[in-house]
Specification:
The complex is a heterodimer of chains A (about 350) and B (about 190). Chain A is α/β, with parallel strands linked by helices and about 350 residues long. Chain A is built from twelve helices and twelve strands. Helices cover about 45% and strands about 10% of the residues of chain B. In chain B, helix 4 links the parallel strand 1 and strand 2. Classes of the chains: A alpha/beta (about 350), B alpha/beta (about 190).
Chain lengths: ~350, ~190
C-alpha cells in the first residue's frame, strides 16, 4: 500500500520490493497514487483510492473514505500482510489493525525527514509489527527525527533496478532515439507544483538553447495533472523506469527526492541536484551531501548562472568520468531484496507462509 | 427543468434531443441499470462530499453541487478524452452538478487534467486474475454502491460500452438526473 506523495518514490520502493518477492507470496497494490497503473506492467494487480489532495476534501471526509475503501479491499482480497510505504500512517490503518488483527502490518519508513517534523507520526510506529527503513546514501547528513531510533530495521537504499538491469550508453540512446552526436540533458523535476517545475524547466531549456548540439529531454511524471508545456526545443520523455535509460544522458538535472537521487547514483549519471522544499523530505541536506561526496552538483535554486556553470563542469569529460567513478565507488548496492526478505521472514515466523 | 429542455440549452441540443429519443427507446437495459444503480444511494438527506468541481468551477459554493457518478466501463481508445470533454461542456452549460467518473481502465489523465475526481474498478479479466472466485458483476455493483454512499452522490449514470456512439445516450440520461441550473453557482 502506498500513499501518493509528490513523486513516484513510495510506489517505486514498493514495486522494487514486490519484484523481488518469492513464489510464496503474491504482491497486490493498493495505492493512493494516480501513477499506480505502472505496476500492471510488472504483472501485479492493483486497486486505487484517490488521495486527499487528489479530491481536495478535508481530513475527516477523506479519512472516512479511506477507512471504508481499505476495509473493502482487505475483505475482498484477504491479504496476509499489509506493507505501507508513506510518511504518515493514516488513521484508517489503526482502524484496520483493530478490525483485522491477524494481518501482519509493516511500515516502510523512508528516513531523511526535516529536523523537527513529524514526531507525532513516528509514534504511529507502534501500529506496525515491523518497521523497515530504506537506506539513505546521505544518512550521515540526516538530522531528522528518525535518526537513532531503534524501532526500525535498516536496509540498503532501495531502487527498482539493479546495476545489471541498466542499459549501456549506446543501447539506451538507441531505444530513446537519441542521436550519438547530441549532448543530451535530462530534466526531471518530479511531480510537485507544476508552476515551479515548468519555470525551472524553461530556465534550463533557455540555458541549453544557446549551446549548439545540445538537447533537453524532460520527463512527465504520471502523477502530474497537466502535461509538460509544449516547447519546440524540449523533447518529452515518458518511460518507466527512467533509471534503465539514464546512461543515455550526458548530464541530468533532477529534483532531489529519494527515488531520483538514488537512481542517479546507481546509474552514475553526472547530475545537478535541485532540492525542493518539502513537508518532511530534507532534499536540501540530501543534495548538499551529494555535492560534498563528489557524486554531483547541488544548486540552491535554479538560475541561469548556477545551471550554466554546473552544466559546464559536468560535461567536461574529465569531471564526468570522475563523477561516474565516484558513484561506482560509493554505490552500496540495492536493499530491495533485503526489505522483501524481512517481510517474508516475518510471515514465516507467524506461520502464514512456509 | 426537464432533461429535454436542458438538452435544448446545450450546443447542438436539438440534434441531441432527436438522437436521444431514439437512443432512449432502444436502451431499455441501460435505463434499468440506471434505476438499479441509482437505488443504491444511501446518502440522501446529507450534503454531498466536498470534492473538486472541475477546473472551471472553482468557487466554494460549487462544492455543494450534487455529485453524479458516471460509470464508464470498456472505453475504447480516445473515448475517455471525448467523454471528459463532453461532460465538461455539459457541466459548464448547466453549472448544476459535479461529475465523479468511475472507469475500468488506467486512463485517468483526461479527467484529472480537467480537475475531476476519478475512481476505478477492475475490469473482469484483471479481477479474475487476482480473485478468480469473484463475480465481476457483484464486484462492480458493490464498488458503485460504496462510491455512491461514501461520496453521498445524488445519481449514478452508466455509460454503456460501445464508445462514442453512446455519447448522446449518456447525455440524455445525464440530463434526466441532474438538477436545474443552480443559481448560486458561479463560474470562476
Amino acid at each position: 500500500m502506498t500513499s501518493n506523495g509528490t513523486g513516484m518514490g513510495h510506489l517505486t520502493r514498493m514495486l522494487a520490493m514486490a519484484t523481488r518477492s518469492s513464489a510464496a507470496v503474491e504482491p497486490f497494490f493498493f495505492s493512493m497514487s494516480s501513477a499506480v497503473p505502472v505496476v500492471a506492467k510488472f504483472g501485479f494487480g492493483w486497486e486505487y483510492c484517490p488521495s486527499r489532495e487528489e479530491i481536495d476534501v478535508d481530513a475527516d471526509e477523506w479519512n472516512a473514505l479511506f477507512d471504508d475503501r481499505l476495509t473493502e479491499v482487505i475483505e475482498r482480497y484477504r491479504p496476509k500482510a499489509l506493507v505501507f510505504d508513506g510518511v504518515v500512517p493514516y488513521n484508517g490503518l489503526r482502524s484496520a489493525r483493530k478490525r483485522f488483527p491477524d494481518l501482519v502490518y509493516v511500515w516502510s519508513r523512508r528516513p531523511m525527514w526535516r529536523r523537527g517534523t513529524g514526531r507525532r507520526w513516528l509514534r504511529r510506529s507502534s501500529w506496525f509489527d515491523l518497521v523497515i527503513e530504506p537506506g539513505e546514501f546521505a544518512a550521515a547528513a540526516d538530522q531528522g527525527p528518525t535518526v537513532g531510533r531503534a524501532d526500525a530495521v535498516r536496509v540498503r537504499p532501495i531502487t527498482l533496478l539493479d546495476r545489471a538491469d541498466l542499459l549501456e550508453h549506446g543501447p539506451a540512446r538507441t531505444e530513446l532515439g537519441i542521436d550519438e552526436s547530441v549532448k543530451a540533458v535530462l530534466v526531471t523535476l518530479g511531480g510537485g507544483n507544476l508552476n515551479d517545475i515548468t519555470s525551472d524547466l524553461d530556465l534550463v531549456a533557455d540555458v541549453v538553447r544557446h549551446r549548439p548540439g545540445w538537447q533537453v529531454y524532460a520527463t512527465q511524471a504520471p502523477i502530474t495533472r497537466s502535461g509538460v508545456p509544449a516547447r519546440d526545443d524540449i523533447r518529452s520523455l515518458s518511460v518507466y523506469p527512467l533509471s534503465r535509460y539514464l546512461a543515455a544522458f550526458d548530464v541530468a538535472v533532477v529534483a532531489c527526492g529519494y527515488n531520483a537521487y538514488h537512481e542517479a547514483i546507481l546509474a552514475g549519471t553526472p547530475t545537478i541536484f535541485v532540492p525542493k522544499p518539502k513537508k518532511t523530505d530534507d532534499q536540501h541536506a540530501r543534495a548538499a551531501y551529494a555535492d560534498e561526496r563528489g557524486i554531483g552538483i547541488a544548486v540552491d535554486g535554479v538560475t541561469s548562472e548556477l545551471i550554466g556553470k554546473a552544466l559546464d563542469r559536468l560535461t567536461d569529460p574529465d569531471e564526468a568520468a570522475r563523477v561516474r567513478q565516484q558513484c561506482a565507488d560509493q554505490y552500496s548496492g540495492n536493499g530491495a531484496a533485503e526489505g522483501m526478505a524481512l517481510v517474508e521472514d516475518l510471515l514465516i515466523k507467524r506461520g502464514v507462509v512456509t | 427543468v426537464t432533461g429535454a429542455s436542458l438538452i435544448g440549452r446545450l450546443p447542438g441540443g436539438r440534434v441531441l434531443e432527436r438522437l436521444g429519443v431514439a437512443v432512449r427507446n432502444r436502451s431499455a437495459r441501460a435505463v434499468r441499470e440506471v434505476r438499479s444503480w441509482t437505488s443504491v444511494v444511501t446518502g440522501a438527506g446529507l450534503p454531498p462530499m466536498g470534492i473538486r468541481s472541475g477546473q472551471h468551477l472553482a468557487a466554494a459554493e460549487t462544492r455543494k453541487l450534487p455529485i453524479v457518478v458516471i460509470v464508464a466501463q470498456g472505453l475504447g481508445d480516445g473515448d475517455a478524452e471525448k467523454l471528459a470533454r463532453q461532460i465538461e461542456e455539459m457541466q459548464l452549460s448547466t453549472r448544476s452538478f459535479r461529475p465523479l467518473f468511475v472507469i475500468d481502465s488506467a486512463e485517468f489523465a483526461p479527467f484529472r487534467q480537467r480537475g475531476y475526481v476519478v475512481e476505478r474498478v477492475m475490469p473482469a479479466a484483471e479481477l479474475a486474475a487476482v480473485n478468480p472466485g469473484d463475480d465481476h458483476g457483484e464486484y462492480v455493483r458493490s464498488r458503485i454502491a460504496a462510491i455512491t454512499r461514501i461520496y453521498r452522490a445524488a445519481s449514478v449514470v452508466p455509460f454503456p460500452t460501445g464508445g462514442q456512439s453512446d455519447m448522446p445516450d449518456l447525455l440524455v440520461r445525464l440530463a434526466d438526473v441532474i438538477p436545474a441550473k443552480a443559481p448560486a453557482a458561479r463560474n470562476h
